């Protein structure tokens, strides 16, 4: 039996999810700037509801970013403390990949362009091809590297432009600034959804099965934007 | 009771283990000063990122150094404030995660209370009550300390902290960051008679400080010297000397007044500026005259460190205090709002 916990604080929402051999239970709360207040109580409530003890967990997953720097650190810090204390490995999950899975699960999208508002006129983005194989297994392939970039510079891989793409995430506030050729590829736009631990725990289960869990100290955020100070 | 202490309020990651019977078992510190020096001051985002990288390795190091395992640790304490909010959250979230995993109590404590009581880590610790001068890059305060959690703020800076003034004056003198030790070094070569800078707010009663005018005075003096074309290395040293003399003199005058006002004979000096040699010399002269004594934490505990947090947390946890709610990160938190330890869950 594999039991995994995932948490995410990368956006204005706080979410937690539990994986028990394919059965997912999740909790989510829209709570800007309240992650420090909510994270641990939400974890405890979810574990209690499923009658799972912390010691039962095989690995701890967290939304590693990109997203709110502070939120990423609250999740990473909480996971570092828990995982170090439990002597349990960790799995970092991309918030963009989680959005891609969300678009696939809820909207059956196969070509997903997740984008998050990175402020300062830039996007955090990447592109994914998502398929559910005949055996029910999810196959998620990254077809554009995750990056922080100005919307006007974003390009889809040439050979995939003809497909119907679904764009998802807060970055769509910059839709009008995307290149016209890219906008032409977007069949659907979902600006509202945010990354969610529910999708992350599923991605974490795949990663765990592939043996990708790492020691607690490696529970680090992936900010993408690394120019944050100016001389 | 054996307590793990975590400090991440600014630009140093500190971790220590303190035992209420055996004293300090281990402490480790990672200073980010070199990284921030490039930018001429602390960059909060970079500070937070570094804490997230360094905290767990330091916890592991302290446990290894003290030769303890998780089951030997009875509680966890962390700096809940004041400080940079993003940096505080790193320590707070990790401490709460760890406490939950180990099933031990956890408590967020006040950073300045740590500094106040840092001399308690020494063999020759002061007894209560005493007056404390907290003097660092972030704070300049005089506090009457009557016991754990019994603090009366006697005076504080109305603008820049003394350490901040040192850093800013150093920048004007084109010295590297952090400027305090650099100014002190340059001042050694300076002629104390060339300039006399003002001693702000000493001409009127009261225990408050102001250092921003001194900064302006330094800038004006520098400009005049440059305009007159007589700026050389000696001149820079003379200005550094006049600046340092003015800050030290002001601090000494206010300490004297604080001891007069409270009638106390013990003075604790803590915070980064307390490492300044001229300040120590002048204070010990002054205190000897009045049959009083100064207490300093050892050099490495003058600046931010995990040991002082572990110490303060241990005192309060041992008295039954603990966080009953979620993690806390409180960027602004007045020292005199603290109270003696109170048991939780009542």
Automatic annotation (TrEMBL), chain A:
Top-rank taxon: Bacteria
Gene Ontology biological-process entries: tRNA threonylcarbamoyladenosine modification
Keywords: Cytoplasm, Transferase, tRNA processing
GO MF term set: transferase activity
UniProt entry tagged with the keyword Cytoplasm: yes
InterPro entries associated with the record: ATPase_NBD, Gcp-like_dom, T6A_TsaB
Coarse class of the protein's main subcellular location: cytoplasm
CDD domains found in the cross-reference section: ASKHA_NBD_TsaB
Location of the Gcp-like domain: 30-208
Keyword set includes Transferase: yes
Pfam families: TsaD (PF00814)
Subcellular location(s) of the protein: Cytoplasm
Gene Ontology cellular component list: cytosol
Annotated family: Belongs to the KAE1 / TsaD family. TsaB subfamily.
Annotated PANTHER family: TRNA N6-ADENOSINE THREONYLCARBAMOYLTRANSFERASE, TRNA THREONYLCARBAMOYLADENOSINE BIOSYNTHESIS PROTEIN TSAB
Protein's name in the database: tRNA threonylcarbamoyladenosine biosynthesis protein TsaB
Native source species: Cobetia crustatorum
Lineage, highest ranks first: Bacteria, Pseudomonadati, Pseudomonadota, Gammaproteobacteria, Oceanospirillales
From TrEMBL, chain B:
One of the record's GO molecular function terms: tRNA N(6)-L-threonylcarbamoyladenine synthase activity
Binding site for substrate: 134-138, 167, 180, 276
Needed co-factor(s): Fe(2+)
Domain Gcp-like: 24-311
Gene3D superfamilies for this protein: 3.30.420.40
Chief site of localization: cytoplasm
CDD domains: ASKHA_NBD_TsaD_bac
Subcellular locations according to the entry: Cytoplasm
Source taxon at top rank: Bacteria
Annotated keywords: Acyltransferase, Cytoplasm, Iron, Metal-binding, Transferase, tRNA processing
GO cellular component, one term: cytoplasm
Major enzyme class: transferase
InterPro entries for this protein: ATPase_NBD, Gcp-like_dom, KAE1/TsaD, TsaD
Pfam families referenced in this protein's UniProt entry, alphabetically: TsaD
The record's free-text note on cofactor binding: Binds 1 Fe(2+) ion per subunit.
Protein EC: 2.3.1.234
Record GO biological process: tRNA threonylcarbamoyladenosine modification
PANTHER family tied to this protein: TRNA N6-ADENOSINE THREONYLCARBAMOYLTRANSFERASE, TRNA N6-ADENOSINE THREONYLCARBAMOYLTRANSFERASE, MITOCHONDRIAL
Family of the protein in this entry: Belongs to the KAE1 / TsaD family.
NCBIfam families linked to this entry: gcp_kae1, T6A_TsaD_YgjD
Record's function text: Required for the formation of a threonylcarbamoyl group on adenosine at position 37 (t(6)A37) in tRNAs that read codons beginning with adenine. Is involved in the transfer of the threonylcarbamoyl moiety of threonylcarbamoyl-AMP (TC-AMP) to the N6 group of A37, together with TsaE and TsaB. TsaD likely plays a direct catalytic role in this reaction.
Protein name from the UniProt record: tRNA N6-adenosine threonylcarbamoyltransferase
